[in-house]
Structures are given as structure tokens and as C-alpha cells.
TrEMBL record:
<dbReference type="InterPro" id="IPR032009">
    <property type="entry name" value="SCAB_CC"/>
</dbReference>
<feature type="domain" description="Stomatal closure-related actin-binding protein Ig">
    <location>
        <begin position="281"/>
        <end position="378"/>
    </location>
</feature>
<protein>
    <recommendedName>
        <fullName>Stomatal closure-related actin-binding protein PH domain-containing protein</fullName>
    </recommendedName>
</protein>
<dbReference type="Pfam" id="PF16711">
    <property type="entry name" value="SCAB-ABD"/>
</dbReference>
<dbReference type="Pfam" id="PF16709">
    <property type="entry name" value="SCAB-Ig"/>
</dbReference>
<dbReference type="GO" id="GO:0007015">
    <property type="term" value="P:actin filament organization"/>
</dbReference>
<dbReference type="InterPro" id="IPR041144">
    <property type="entry name" value="SCAB-PH"/>
</dbReference>
<feature type="domain" description="Stomatal closure-related actin-binding protein PH">
    <location>
        <begin position="381"/>
        <end position="488"/>
    </location>
</feature>
<feature type="coiled-coil region">
    <location>
        <begin position="181"/>
        <end position="208"/>
    </location>
</feature>
<dbReference type="Pfam" id="PF16712">
    <property type="entry name" value="SCAB_CC"/>
</dbReference>
<dbReference type="Pfam" id="PF17684">
    <property type="entry name" value="SCAB-PH"/>
</dbReference>
<dbReference type="InterPro" id="IPR032012">
    <property type="entry name" value="SCAB-ABD"/>
</dbReference>
<dbReference type="InterPro" id="IPR039640">
    <property type="entry name" value="SCAB"/>
</dbReference>
<feature type="domain" description="Stomatal closure-related actin-binding protein coiled-coil">
    <location>
        <begin position="100"/>
        <end position="267"/>
    </location>
</feature>
<feature type="domain" description="Stomatal closure-related actin-binding protein actin-binding">
    <location>
        <begin position="54"/>
        <end position="96"/>
    </location>
</feature>
<dbReference type="GO" id="GO:0010119">
    <property type="term" value="P:regulation of stomatal movement"/>
</dbReference>
<dbReference type="GO" id="GO:0003779">
    <property type="term" value="F:actin binding"/>
</dbReference>
Length: 494
């Protein structure tokens, strides 16, 4: 018998080992890299770290799909699910191939074991031990292959479960895509209908615009023709003649107004005579802003005015309750801007008997005063030259010129560079015409800057005095403050 060495594959007779069946197909071109560990246990060699197992690949793909699900649109999600389904089918095919390869490995190991068994009966000695060691290795490989088959079966179940999940998700995605597509089609149809309605309304509007434009053009032509006709009629010479006629009419109207005022006074006197009134007094003076009214005795039979109690009132021209004028207790009263359009009454009381004198009509405004005040409102600060006649109810002997500044937010009284009083508009501030004061009452006003500080100021003209009252009240009203007359009468009645 021929002695066999450890490398028995090179010295063993060829007819001693039966040939491997031709129907065996190897899954790989190389034999697996197995090693014998402790207690003759077969262990795998170190695999390539770059090669991932099928379970890891499936887990990574699933995580990526779940991560991208939130970012994808419905259509992209459906495409992803279809790709995942294809990948699952591919993995299933690979699992089948691996199963076939595993079966082939079992067949190969069985044939190899049979060959080694037949060889063990033919050899002896050390070669027989080697053959038995090889048989043990083959049996260990068979056990290892059986374990791999179990893992493969488990992976196959997981792959099948993933394929079912991806298939269901793909169906849901397709359903969602169909719903979104139907909704989009409905939106498109609605938008088309809206566009069609807008086009129809635009066409109708265009037709109406053309018709109305033609009508407006015809009316405009008529207006132009009429304007040309009026222009031809009103030549410069005719306009000048009309201006002269208008000026003459204004002069006649002013003269007739004076005559009407005299006639109204005469009529009032005649009525008093006819009614046998025994009034001993009458109102003298122009009933207009910028002048003053005086109670004048008509006979010597009446009591002296110094012994009588006098109180002035204002009454609305359209009728209503009369309003007491605070501080107006003298025989002379100068109307202020607040009295314009109202009737004035003077009530004289003596020994319990009362005599009421009434103006013949409402107080007339001063010509041009309104436009003058409007021009002053546009300025930031307006200055008026005044003389202080009283300060805190006491006569002021000095007749030096002061400057009264009426501003947007405050009123300031100065003498040169020295400031006498400076106060912002407030509810404690009071501004009105002076009650009494003789012939100069129409040019003086009372100003209470704050409680305990008051002045009586004389202006250069009645117009400036009335303009100051109107301007200050207007600017204070812009600050949501209403300037009114005084409540106490002592400073004004002096």
C-alpha cells in the first residue's frame, strides 16, 4: 500500500476518490474561508468590513425611506414605494438564489463526506487520522451551513414582511395620487370656469364702455359748444360792464342796509310808543362786532343807572333760552366774536321793577375778520402789541408796550426780553372781551392765564382784539380745550 503524506490530495490515486457529480453548481468561485477553533469548532474568517449583510441593507433602506417620507411629495413618495417594492422583489430573488446555493452546498458537503468516508476505509495510519479530521471539519461545516440556513429563513421572512409593507404603502400612495389628481382636475375645471366668467364679464364691460364712451363724448362735445357760445357772449368789455354794475349794486345794498337798520329802530320806537311803553332807556350804538352798546336814558324821569342793577344776556336768533353773560353788569358792553348771530338783551332792575332792552337784530360780523383769522392760523406764532391796564384785578399804571404771543400750544405775554406770563392752553385758562370799560371796551380783553393770575389787555384796534379772541379759541379747540369766559365777575366788572 502506498504511504500517504499530509497533503494527500497530491499523492492520492485518482481512482481512489470518486468524481464529483457534474450537476453540482458552486455559488462562488472560491471555497469559504473557514477556520478550526477551540474544541474543533468551525468559525468564519474575517469578512470584508465593506460588505454589508442583507439585514443591514434592508434596515438602512427602510430608515432612509421613513426619513424621506416627510420631505417627498405624493408622486415622489409613490415612486419611492415602487422602487422599494422592486428592491424587495430583488431581495426576494436573491434570497431564493441563496437558498438554491445553500442546497447546492448541502449536496456538495454530502458528496464530499461520502468521498472521505470511502477514503477512510482505504487509508491507514496518519493519513487515516487526517481523513477523520477532514470528515469532522465537513460535519462542522454542515452544522454551520444549517445555522446559516436558519438565519436565511429568518431574513427571508423579514424581507417578505417588508415587501408586503412596501406593497401596501405603494397601493396607498397610488390611491392618494389618484385622489390628489382628481382634486387637481376639479380645481383646474373650477379655475377654467372662473376665467371664462371673467372673460365674459370683461367683454360685457368693454361693450358697455364703448357705448357709454360714445355717449359721454357726445355730451362733452355739447358742453364744449355751449362753453364756446358763452365765451363768445362774454367779451372782456361786457365783463367789465358787469363788474361795474355789480359794484354799484353792492354800494346800493350797503346803503339800503343802513336805511333798513334805521327803519327797524324807528319801527321799534313806534311800537313802544303805540303800546304806551314807559321805558326810560334805550340801547345806543352799532349792533356789530367791533363796536360797543351803551344804555342811554331817554328821559329825566327814570332813575340813575348808577343806582340800578344791570345784567346783559345773549339770546339765539332762532329763539331759545337766553344765556347770562358773566361779568357784563355795566351800562356799556362791547360784543365779542361769540355774540355774532345772536340777539343781546340788557336787563335793568330798580326797586324790584325790571326793564329789558333788546337789540333790533342779531349782532353782525366784522367785514374781513374771518379771512384775517384764517391767515393768522397758518402762522406758527402771532404777535400783538398790547398795553396792560389791569393785573390781578388791580389797575396797572404803566402804559409801556407789551407783546402778546398767541401760539399753537400756549399764550405768552412779554415785555422786551422779560416774560410776564407764559401758560399752555388748559381748562383753567379764560379769554373773553372786557365787560364794561367805557368807550375802550371794544379794544380790550380779559385773560386769566391760570387761577390767581389775570390781565386786562388793551389792543391797538378792535380788529386785533377780536382776532386774538377768535385765534386763541380756535387753537385751543385744536388742542381739545374749550376756552370760555370767567365764572367770577369781579375782575371784569371793575
Amino acid at each position: 500500500m502506498t504511504r500517504l503524506s499530509r497533503d494527500f490530495g497530491n499523492t492520492m490515486q485518482k481512482d481512489a476518490v470518486p468524481a464529483v457529480s457534474a450537476d453540482v453548481v458552486f455559488a462562488s468561485s472560491r471555497f469559504p474561508n473557514y477556520k478550526i477553533g477551540a474544541n474543533n469548532q468551525v468559525v468564519d474568517g474575517k469578512d470584508d468590513p465593506k460588505v454589508l449583510s442583507m439585514k443591514e441593507v434592508v434596515a438602512r433602506e427602510t430608515a432612509q425611506l421613513l426619513e424621506q417620507q416627510k420631505r417627498l411629495s405624493v408622486r415622489d413618495l409613490a415612486n419611492k414605494f415602487e422602487k422599494g417594492l422592486a428592491a424587495a422583489a430583488k431581495l426576494s430573488e436573491e434570497a431564493k438564489l441563496r437558498e438554491a446555493a445553500s442546497l447546492e452546498k448541502h449536496v456538495l458537503l454530502k458528496k464530499l463526506r461520502d468521498a472521505l468516508e470511502s477514503l477512510r476505509g482505504r487509508v491507514a495510519g496518519r493519513n487515516k487520522d487526517d481523513v477523520e479530521e477532514a470528515i469532522a471539519m465537513v460535519e462542522a461545516l454542515a452544522v454551520q451551513l444549517t445555522q446559516r440556513e436558519g438565519e436565511l429563513i429568518q431574513e427571508k421572512a423579514e424581507v417578505k414582511k417588508l415587501a408586503d409593507f412596501l406593497k401596501k404603502a405603494s397601493e396607498d400612495a397610488k390611491k392618494l395620487v389618484d385622489e390628489e389628481r382628481a382634486f387637481a382636475r376639479a380645481e383646474i375645471e373650477s379655475a377654467r370656469a372662473a376665467v371664462q366668467r371673467v372673460e365674459e364679464s370683461l367683454q360685457e364691460h368693454e361693450r358697455m364702455s364703448r357705448a357709454s364712451g360714445k355717449q359721454d363724448f357726445e355730451e362733452l362735445m355739447k358742453e364744449v359748444q355751449e362753453a364756446r357760445r358763452i365765451k363768445m357772449l362774454h367779451q372782456p368789455s361786457k365783463v367789465m360792464d358787469m363788474e361795474h354794475e355789480l359794484r354799484a349794486l353792492r354800494i346800493q345794498l350797503a346803503e339800503k342796509s343802513k336805511c333798513s337798520l334805521l327803519l327797524r329802530k324807528e319801527l321799534a320806537m313806534s311800537k313802544r310808543i303805540e303800546e304806551k311803553l314807559s321805558d326810560s332807556y334805550e340801547l345806543d350804538g352799532s349792533e356789530a362786532l367791533g363796536s360797543y352798546l351803551r344804555i342811554k336814558p331817554c328821559s329825566n324821569n327814570g332813575p340813575e343807572l348808577s343806582k340800578c342793577s344791570i345784567q346783559w344776556y345773549r339770546v339765539p336768533s332762532e329763539g331759545g333760552k337766553r344765556e347770562l353773560i358773566s361779568g357784563a353788569t355795566k351800562s356799556v358792553y362791547a360784543p365779542e366774536p361769540f355774540d355774532v348771530g345772536r340777539i343781546l338783551q340788557a336787563e335793568i332792575t330798580y326797586n324790584g321793577q325790571q326793564i329789558t332792552l333788546t337789540t333790533t337784530g342779531a349782532v353782525d360780523p366784522a367785514p374781513g375778520l374771518g379771512s384775517y383769522v384764517e391767515a393768522l392760523v397758518r402762522k406758527h406764532d402771532v404777535e400783538f402789541h398790547v398795553v396792560v391796564t389791569q393785573m390781578n384785578g388791580v389797575d396797572h399804571p404803566s402804559e409801556s408796550i407789551h407783546v402778546l404771543h398767541v401760539g399753537k400750544m400756549r399764550i405768552k405775554l412779554c415785555k422786551g426780553k422779560m416774560t410776564i406770563a407764559k401758560e399752555y392752553y388748559s381748562t383753567s385758562m379764560q379769554l373773553c372781551g372786557v365787560r364794561g370799560g367805557g368807550n375802550a371796551a371794544a379794544q380790550a380783553l380779559f385773560w386769566q392765564a391760570k387761577k390767581g393770575v389775570s390781565f386786562v389787555l388793551a389792543f391797538e384796534s378792535e380788529r386785533e382784539r377780536n382776532a386774538t379772541i377768535m385765534l386763541a379759541r380756535r387753537l385751543a379747540f385744536d388742542c381739545n380745550i374749550m376756552l370760555a369766559g370767567p365764572e367770577d365777575r369781579s375782575p371784569l366788572g371793575s
